[in-house]
Amino acid sequence: MSFKRFLTAAAVASASALPASAALRVVATTPEYGAIATAVGGDKVTVAVLAKPTEDPHFVDAKPSHIVTLNHADVLIEGGAELEVGWLPPLTDGARNTKINAGAPGRVRASEGIQLLDIPAALDRSLGDLHAAGNPHFMMDPANGRIVAEHVATVFCQLDAASCASFKGNLQAFEEKLDAKTKDWAAALAPYKGRPIVTYHPTWKYFAARFGLVSELYLEPKPGIPPSPPHLAEVMQAMNDKKIKIVLVEPFQSRKTAEAVADRTGATVVDVCQFPGGLPGTDRDYIALLDADVKAIVAGFEAKK
Question: What does residue 154 show for φ and ψ, rounded to 5 degrees?
Answer without folding.
Answer: -60, -45
